[in-house]
UniProtKB/TrEMBL annotation:
Catalytic center residues: 117 (o-(5'-phospho-dna)-tyrosine intermediate)
Record has DNA-binding as a keyword: yes
Catalytic activity: ATP-dependent breakage, passage and rejoining of double-stranded DNA
Biological processes, Gene Ontology terms: DNA topological change
Similarity remark: Belongs to the type II topoisomerase GyrA/ParC subunit family.
Alphabetical list of Gene3D superfamilies matching this protein: 3.30.1360.40, DNA gyrase/topoisomerase IV, subunit A, C-terminal, Topoisomerase II, domain 5, Topoisomerase, domain 3
Coiled-coil blocks: 431-472
Pfam families xrefs: DNA_gyraseA_C, DNA_topoisoIV
EC number(s) reported in the record: 5.6.2.2
A cellular-component GO term for this protein: cytoplasm
UniProt protein name: DNA topoisomerase (ATP-hydrolyzing)
Upper taxonomic lineage: Bacteria, Pseudomonadati, Aquificota, Aquificia, Aquificales
GO molecular function, one term: DNA topoisomerase type II (double strand cut, ATP-hydrolyzing) activity
Top-level class of the enzyme under EC nomenclature: isomerase
Amino acid sequence: MEITTVAIEEEVKQSYIDYAMSVIVGRAIPDARDGLKPVQRRILYAMYQMGLTPEKPFVKSARIVGTVLGYYHPHGDQAVYDALVRMAQDFNMRYPLISGQGNFGSIDGDPPAAMRYSEAKLSKVAIKMLEDIEENTVDFIPNFDGSTVEPALLPSKFPNMLCNGSSGIAVGLATSIPPHNLKEVCSALIELAKNPNISTEEIMKRIKGPDFPTGGIVENYQELIEYYHTGRGHVRVRAKAHVEKLQGGREQIVITEIPYQVNKAELIKRMAELVREGKLKEISEIRDESDKEGIRIVIELKRDAQGQKVLEKLYKHTALRKNFPINFVVLIDNQPKQVGIKELLQEFLRHRLEVILRRAKHHLKKAEDRLHIVEGLTKALEHLDKVIQDIRSSKDVPQAKEKLMKNYTLSERQANAVLDMRLQRLTSLESSKLEEEKKQLIQSIEHYKKLISSEEERIKVFIQEMEEIVKEFPSPRRSFVLGFENEEVGQITVIIYSNGKIMPLEEMQEEGQVVDVLDVPFSEGLFMVSNRGRVYWIAGSQALQGSKVSFKEADESVVGAFVRSQASHRIILITKRGYVKKIPIVDFEYKTQGMSIIKFSEEEDEVVKVLQSPEEGDILLLTRKGKMLRFPIRDIPPATVGSKGVIGIKLEGDDTLISARAITDFPYLLLITQKGAVKKINAKDIPARGRGSKGMTATARTKGDAVDIVPIKESVELMIATQEGKVFYDRLEEREIPLKEVQRWSIDEDIITRVAVKKAQ
C-alpha cells in the first residue's frame, strides 16, 4: 500500500473546506430555485410520497419523521421534526407548507408537543411546490444508501424563496431572507419576464418590502432599495400599537402586532422589568389579552401619563422595534453566492422556464407515443374484417402479431395494442372516439413543439401560472410599509364592507357591500356603527393588513364609519323607519365594544346611515321611493346613549328611509338610482321644511329605486358597488351633468346597492 505524505496544515485546511461546503450545501443555505434546504425538501417529498395531500387525513408526525429518516435524511430525528414544525408555524412561515394538528409551539416560545402527539399533512401551497414532479421536470439523485432516489430540487411553481424567506448559519457565512407578499412577488416576476432589463428600483415599486407573518410596520423603505440591490442590510420593523382613551381621562396602549421572530412572553417580561427598574414609571399594569383572534397586549397607564410618549419609550427600550437582517446568500449551481433581489427573481424565472420546457418534452413524448398507438388502432379498424380473420387463423399470439405487422405495416407496439383491444372498441362510436382523440393529440403535439422551440411561448405560460397562483392564494399584505410611493406617513386608505371587513384599498376584494372609503391614520381609532345600533372600533394600525369586526349578533352589519380625529363632536343615526338621533361621540368612544347607542322606537327598525353632524346647516333625508326632506340640523335635539331617536320624515306605505347627507355649502346634489341613473338637483330647489314632514318627490322611479344622494361642487369621485359584488369608480364633473335624470351606468340585470364618496371638491 502506497503512503502519501501530506503537510498537516494542508490536510486540516482541505478537511475544513470540505466540512464547510458540506454544511453550506447540505444543511444551512437554501437553493435559490425552490428556496428549500435539503431537510425541508426531503420532508415535503416524503409526505408527497406518503400521499399526505390536503384533502387526506392527518397522520402522526412521528410516522413522517420515520419515513424521512429511513429513506432520505440520515441525521437525527429531532432535526427533522424541528424542520417539520417550523414549516407548520404560521407565525414563522408567511405561507406554511405543512398543515399541523395539535401543539406546534406558539409565538410565546412554548415548545411543540412531542412528534408522537402531533399530526401533519401537506398544505395547499406545498402542493404547488411539488406539482409536475412526476413529469421529468427536475433531476433525481440517489439517496444516502442508493436504495431509492430523491429530487435534487422541487419544481416549485410557488415562489417560495422570497415568499417564505429563509435563515441559516453555515461555516463562515449566513443567510437571512425575510418573507414577502405573494401577490407582489408574482407581479415582479411577471414584469421581469416581460422586461429582463428591469431595475431594482422598478422591482421595488412592485415588492414594497418584507411582508412578515406577524405584521408590523416597516420603517425604512427608502433604505431598502439599496439593501435589496446589494443583498445586504436590515429591515427596521416596529410593532403596531395605538393609544386608547379611558373614562376619567386616563389612557392605555394596545399592541396588536409585534415584530417578526420576537417572543411575546419575553417581550412582556422585559416590559415588566423596565417597570420594576423605574424606567417606565408611567405604567400601572400590563395584560396579555391575546387569543385565537390575534395579539392584544394592553398596557394601562397612570393618570396624566401621555400614551404616545410612553409608546416611544417602549419602542426604544424593548423589542417592539427591531432590525431584521437582510443577507441574500443562496445556492446557485450548488455554490453559495451573495445576490440582490433581481438575481433571486431571475433564478426562479430561469428554473420555472426550465421546468416548463422539460414538462413540455415529457408531454410531447407521451402524446407522440399515444398517437402512434391510436394510428395503429385506427388502421386496424379500417380493415376490421380482415384483421379479425388474420387473428382467428393464427395458431398463437406471436403468429397473429407477425401477420398484423406484415399485412398492415404496423409496428410491434401497434400490433400489441390491436391484440390487446377489447371487443367494445370495435363499435362505430368507439371508432369515432379514436378519430377525435387523434385530432386532439395532433393539436397537443403542435402545442408542445411550439413550447419547446420558443422561449417566448414558455414565458407566456410562466406569466399565466403566476397570475393563476395569485388568484388561488389571495393574501392581503400584513406588514405596512411607511413611505411607499410617497404615501402620507402613518396613514392608509381603507375600504369598509358591510360584513365588518376592513381592507387596504389596494387589496380590495369582493367581500360584500361597500360601506365607505376612508383615510385612516394608524395611530387613530376607526369607529363603525352597525345596523343594530351598536358601535365597534379598531385601531388604524389594525386596518393596515385587513381586519374584521366581531359582531355581537349574527344579523349585524356595518352601516357607517368614521375616524375619531376627523369627526365632529356629534354623529347622527338614521333609521329605516324614518327616525333620527344626534349623539355626542364622547358618550361612547373607547368604552365598550358592541355598546348600544340607540333604543329603537319601532320593532323591526334598524340604523341605515351614520353621518357627522356639523354645528350649522341642514340635513337631507332620502327614502327608497325617492322622497326628500330637508330641515335644519339644529331641529334634532341632542340625546343620550340609551334614548330613542325622534321622527325625521313621515313615511308613506311601505317606503323606507335609506340615506341622509349633511348639506352645508354644496350647490348641487346627485340622486343615484339602483339602475344606474343620475339626477342633478340644485340644492336651492329643495325647500327647508319642518322635521317630521312627508317631504317632496325627487324622482319618478323610472330607473329603479333611489340608492343615495351625494353633495357635489365641481366634481366628485365615486365608488359604486353592486349587488353582484362588482365595484367600479367614476369621476363626475358637475358641469357635464344636466339638471335632469340621465342614464350614467349600464349595469344590465345587476343593481347598485351602495355609493361611497372617494373624493369631493
